[in-house]
Structures are given as C-alpha cells and as structure tokens.
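Extended Data, record Starch synthase, chloroplastic/amyloplastic
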Amino acid sequence: MAGKLSTCFLSHQWSCCTVVDCKHLNVRFYSLPSPRFATVSCKIRQRNSSLPPRRPQAKKIIPAQIPQNDNLMTPGNENSDSENEDDFSHQCTSDEVVAIQRFDDKNSNNKLIPSIGADKVGEVTTVNLQDVIGMIRNAEKNIHILNQARINAIEDLETVLSEKEVLQREINNLEMRLAETDARIRVAAQDKIHVELLQDHLEKLQSEMSNNGAHDAVVLRSPDRQTRALSEELNALRNENMSLQNDLNTLKEQLRDVKRTDERVEMLENERTVLELSIKELEYKLTVSQQDSVQLSTLRSECETLWNKVEHLQGLLDKSTSQADQAILVLQQNQELRKKVERLEESLEDANIYKLSSEKLQQYNDLMQQKIKLLDERLERSDAEIHSYVQLYQDSVKEFQETLDNLKEESKKKASGKQVDMPWEFWSRLLLMFDAWFLEKKIHGDEAKFLREMTWKKDGRIHDVYIECKEKNEREIIAAFRRLTSSSSGSGLHVVHIAAEMAPVAKVGGLGDVLSALSKALQKKGHLVEIILPKYDCMQYESIQNLRVLDLAVESYFDGHLFKNKIWVGTVEGLPVYFIEPLHPAKFFWRGKTYGEPDDLKRFSFFSRAALELLHQSGKKPDIIHCHDWQTAFVAPLYWDLYAPKGLNSARICFTCHNFEYQGTASASEIASCGLDIHHLNRPDRMQDNSSHDRLNPVKGAIVFSNIVTTVSPTYAQEVRTSQGGQGLHATLNAHSQKFVGILNGIDTDSWNPATDTYLSFQYNASDLEGKFENKNVLRRHLGLSLSDSRRPLVGCITRLVPQKGVHLIRHAIYRALELGGQFVLLGSSPVPNIHREFEEIAKQFQNHEHIRLILKYDEALSHSIYAASDMFIIPSIFEPCGLTQMIAMRYGAIPIARKTGGLNDSVFDVDDDTIPIQLRNGFTFVTPDEHAFNGAFDRAFKFYKNDSEGWEELMKKVMNIDFSWDTSASQYEELYLQSVSKAKAARRAAAG
C-alpha cells in the first residue's frame, strides 16, 4: 500500500480519493481523463481545497509559444492560473543545469563574449561585424539554453512542492483515521472484558445445570457464537490497526524523504539564482553587442554615404582637372607656336641675307615658308578656340545680366503690391506679430486689420518692409509698417479653430491630426487660419517655433470671479497658434496629461470661455469659428448668449463631433461655472440631455446652437441618426438634419509620405517597393523578431486599446496570425485598467517570442516604422467614426483588414466584392464583429499573400496611389463655410433693407 501511495503522490497522471467507513479503511485510485489536463486538475483542487494555505511557490516563467486554444486568454480567466505548459525540443535535467552553468562559467573565464566598457568606445569601429554577429548569436543560444534549464528547475520545484503537499494531506487523514481506530480498539477491549466476565458466569451456570443436557446446550451455544464473533471482529480491528501503523510508518519515512527533498529544493533555488545572474549577465552582453552592431551599421552607412560623396567629388575634380589641363596645354602650344614663329622669322631674315648666295638657300626658304604657313593655320585654330572660350564667358556674363534684370523687374513688381511666395511660417509669424502689437496697444485696431489683410494676401510690400527693417528696433519697425497706406481686396475667409488637440504639439487621438491637416489645407486655398489651444505643461514644445508670451493678461469669468490668462503665441508647421495659460488656482492644464482628470468639464469650459474672450479683446472679426468635440462644444451657446451681444457677431459657428460616444454630460451646476444661463438652456429643445433631464449635454447644445454641424464620414453620419448609433442624440440630429453632414477625413500627405519620411531607414514609393522590404527587416531586427523567412507576412496594429476598437478581435488576431504562419506587431496603450492588465499578460507571454511583439505605449517614430514594415494592417473596430489608420496604412503599402462600419466602410472595399468597381477594391472587409467573420477576411488575406505574390504587389501599388489627401475634404468644408457666410450676409442685408 505504501508503494501505491508513493506512486500516486509522485505522479501527475493520477489523483487520489480516500473513502473511510465505520469498519474498514479503503483507499481508491482514479485515473484522470487525459494526461494533458493533469496539471490543470491539480491546480483546480488546490484552489478548491479547504486546508490551510500552502507554502508560496516560486513564480513560474512562461516562455512564449503558440497556445493550444484561444480560450486560455479570455478575460474571464484573469484570476485563474491559466498558464500554458511549455513543450521544448529537449528538456534539461538538474545535471544539465549544472553543466550549462559550468559551460557559462567557462565561457566567461575564456572571455568568449567580451564586455565593451566606456574606455573601449573609440575602438568599436575596429571590431569585425561578423564577429559581433557571432557573439550575439552565441549569447542568444546561451540565453535560450539557460531559460530552458531555469524553467525545468522551476517545474521540478513545483512538482516536489505539490507532492509534498499531497503527502502532508494524506498523513493528516491517516493520523485522524488512526485516532478513530484506537478509540474503537479501546471500546472493543472493554467489550472483551465484559465477555470474559460473561464466560465466567456461564461456566458457573454450566456446573449448576449439567443435568439439563440438550436444552442447556442450546442455551450455551448462543453465547459462544457471540463471543467468537466479537473475538473475530477484535482480531480484524487489530490487524487493521497493524496495517494502519505500517502505513503510518511508511508515510513518516516518505515525510523524511520530503524533508530531504526540501534540501534539494533549496539547492535548486540556489542554482536558479545562479542561472538568473548568468542570464542577466548574458542579457547585458547581448544588449552591448546589439548596441555595437547598431553603431557599426550606422558607421557603415555613414561610411558608404561619405564614400559616395568622395567618389562624386573625385569625379568633379577629375573633370575640372582635365579641363584645366586642356586649357594649360592649349596655352603652352600657343606659346611654343609663338616661339617657333619668332625663330622662323629670325631664320627668314638670315635666309634673306643669303638668298642670292645659293639655290639651296632658296629651297630652304620655300620650305620655311610652308612651315610658317602651317604654323599660322595652327595659330589661327588656337585663336579660334580661345575666341570660343571668350564667347562662352561673354554669354555667361550676358545671362547673369539678364537674371539681374529679371530680379530687378521682380523687385519692382513686388513693390507694386504683387504676392510674394514665402513659406507660411513667415506669414504666420508676421500675423502673430501684428496681433501682439494690437493686444499690447502699440497700434490701432484699423491698422491691425489692414496689416492682417495684407499678410493674409501675401502682399509683397509687407515682405519688403519686414526685410528692410528686421535689423531695426521695434519702434522703427512699427513706424515703417504704419507708412503702408495702400490696401487690396480678397475673397478669402478668416477661420479660427478652437480645440483641445493639435498634432504634433498636443496629440492624443485623431482629432489632433485632423485639426492640423485641415488647417493647412485651408491655408493653402488662400484662407486665413488661426488656432487657439490650451497651454499644457506636457506639450511637445520643440515643435513650436518662436514661442513667446505677450505682455498682457486676458481676464475671463469663471465661478463668479474674473481670472487672468497668459497668452502665448507661436507657429506650428506654418500655422499661427495662440496658447491660453489660465492663472487659476486649480492649475487646469498643469496636470501632466491632456485628458482624464476628474474636473475635465471645468477645465475645458473655462478654456472655451477664455478663447472667446481672447477673440473679443483682440478685436478680431472671424468669418468662421470652428469648435471640435465636447471639450469646446461650450463655444456655441457662449458665443450666441454672451459674446454676440457684445459685438463679436461676425462669425458663423461650425461644430464637428469626431466621436458621439463622448458627450461630456454633467449636472447643470457644473456647466453654469462658465457663465451659461442654465435656466435658459435646461430645455428639451436646447441643452437638456435626452436621457437624463436633470443633466445638460454640451454636444447637444453645440448641435442646437451651431450654424454648421459635421461629423467625420458619410456612413457614420447615417449611423448616428439611428437609435443604435446615436448614443441618445439621434432625435436631436434628425431634428437638425438640414445643417448636419458627414465629410470623410483625409490625412496629411506631407507628414505621411514614405518617399520623404525621415523616420524610415529606407524611403520608397509605389514605383520602387524595395525600400519597403528593407524597412521590414529593419523593424524585425529592432524588435528582435525572426528574419529566417523573408516571405512571412507581417501584420501590424496601431490603436488605443478600448472596447470601441474591438480588443477581443485584436487579441484573437495575435494567435490567428501565428496559426497562419505570420508575424504580429501591436503598438498602443489602454486607459481601461482590466484591458491594460490583460494585454500586459499577453506581452509577457510573448516577450521573447520570435514572431510576436506587443509595445504597450505610443511611439511616434516606431509608428512610422510599423506602417512601412507591415504587409497587412487590422482595424477590427466595433464602430469607427472615420479612422485614419487604414488611410495611413495604404499610403505606406500595407493592405487593410477592416470591419465595414463608419469611415472604414467609406474607405476600404473588399477585393472579392463583385458589386464594387475593380478600380476601387483595396482591402479585405467583414461585417459581424466576431471571430468567425474576422477569420474569413484574415484567412483570405493570408491566402492571397502566399499564393499570388505578383497580385499582392500590384495591390500594394494600387493602394499607395489612392488620394487620401485633405484637398477634397477641405473643399467640402470650404463650400460649407462660404454658404453659411453668404446666408448670414444676405440676412444682414435683408434686415438692413
């Protein structure tokens, strides 16, 4: 029995169940359904056990591998012990661990992997690149072996501890049963004594009743049978007691073995510690080697670049040298010819003296004449060549004179008021300078307006005055600009954007990209565009040019008081931007982040009012005030209720909601802080929330009070007018449908251009895709992914990990990509704690995997590299107002795999959909947001990629040539602006008439 128990406790293939009744002790064994689930079964029994807590186990390290099924990673298993058991090509025993450690120590002693210190940095360039690569590979192999040994040691430790716990539980059960058996033995002993007394009494009765033969015999036989039965039962209990004592002794012997096992566990823990130190050392060496490799690659590329430049310069030098040698040779020939001519003339004079002396001299003279003639011809040719050089020089001088005349003529044209083609950065800087002079009371309002108009039109006179006076002091510069008296007319609009984000200075989501790109597109169409932002402490200040604070403070109302605001100005990618810094005790925008604060509603309602106050105090008369999302939705009711009566009444209000899921609803008292009349606005036809009548909805207020309402795609505009997609605002949108329109966003094709992207190691375009394949290998090396198969597809995903983006499908895509033989890279973070924890666990599981990498943050440079390296891009959103990811991915030649919703439905069309014109088909789509539908599109993309490489390359070229620029979208906004402004002017004329 002891042998059976030992076998049971030391095996993961069996579980033990003991059943005790009042007379017998039975030990029964049941085989598990399958060895595959043995470990999971043991862990389930540990969680359900009511015994005292077990001894803490060492944390198990799970190497990255392909999971057996996706259910192991579902959110419902967050608190369960669901680690996958790892299969290795070979397992390392404890002796192998010692051998590995000795091998590592031997390598360390022999210095096979040198450590490069700070004093050796200068010698890095002399290291052979192949040696460094070999060192890196050896380090990776050693780390892999040590990881395997470490995992096996930890598994052995867990096995021993689990066996020890099972043994301890069995010992406790047996001791309890032994105590019960001892009690029963004591009861049986008392029964035995009672029986002996009965036997004595019977013997006396026998002697007295010896004459009653047959009847007495029957009477006596019954007690004898009872006595024998009791004796047999007592003997059985004794035998069972002896058996239990033997089992107890065996278990105690096994307990001593377990104690000896504890010593082995301690030894394994010491070995594990040594292995961890060795791994850390090898990881450090690997890091140093990788850094050296990167430095060597950089130096090699720099060397190649310099060598190409040297070759080019050498070619130019050789060409110049040959030309110089030719000119010198011609001059030398001319000099030699002149010397020969002089000698010949001298010879001719001598010959004339002796002309009559002999016939021979006459012949010699004729010969000399012929030579002179030949030399004259050569001299004439040399003179002609010299004359050609002189003619070339004269032509160059003439061309220079013509260029100078053209420049003078252009200067005259500029002086007459023509436009000057200067960067937008220049005109935006001038515009901010004029506004600063007006706000600081250095020029009058009419002068500021006149100078703004000239700047808006790029008037050459503004440019000339600035160039002429830029070295003078401010007073002289102001006087020079005041001398400008002429003006010109123009048809452009004055547009002011008020928003919470702008790329690249304060970007959180797509709003920042949209604001920058739309503003630049409108600016290129000849409109004056200005932007007002909060001044966050966490902005990318390096992206702001000429940032400075104005010498004034704009006061704005909030919570019954007036608070001052510092006004900063600067240019961002050629756009003039005003930054408002509230001098409020709560330090609204000094929080280290853009959104996510408990008082976000107060922060942005304060900013909205301060922005309007800035426009009012600066005397601006914009044609359009364009506000975005709930953070600046307060602008619309504030403008019409408070500022239009004050004189800021020239503008039409345009409101764009980029996502109707976020509406900023709050109690009326909170919204009243910025000065809105809640009694006037808390009505069903104004700002009262449709779902909760005691709350106000800023987005609803913006829809009601704006002249133009837009969202970011036509399909999304239809979706939000339904009860399923409207987030409670569908009735309001339908009531104001005449001013509601969906305009598909574009992307900034200057920032997102693989042919000029400075973040990429290799630039490329649709006609030359070689750079894309090189970028794929660069990203693989950077993230530590396998490069063994160049045709293995790389799937990219860049997103915020929120439920809207279909996180369950993103998680599923990671494992599905492995099953189909691909690689997967995810870049993104999550503000939702449980989603963030879930993807952190997945990232840890695959942290050393050769085909999967998860980077849970946002990295601008890395995002460009992932777009350029990816073959496919997944966008499995539950709903998506517009989406820029699919457009950027196609711009970089990555084929989108997207769900048909919102802007994705307006920009991605399935390659297998016969109802779509073939020239528009550009990706793979699915409808239902579940794993089955996703697999249909995902598997088709992999099949296309693997089976038709030429067709895939043609598809890449097609999507790269699609125009996703802002030109079309900006034209639609321009048309809406002009229509609204024209209606307003017509209404004013009608009112005046």
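Summary. Confidence is low (pLDDT under 50) at residues 1-126, 214-222, 485-490.
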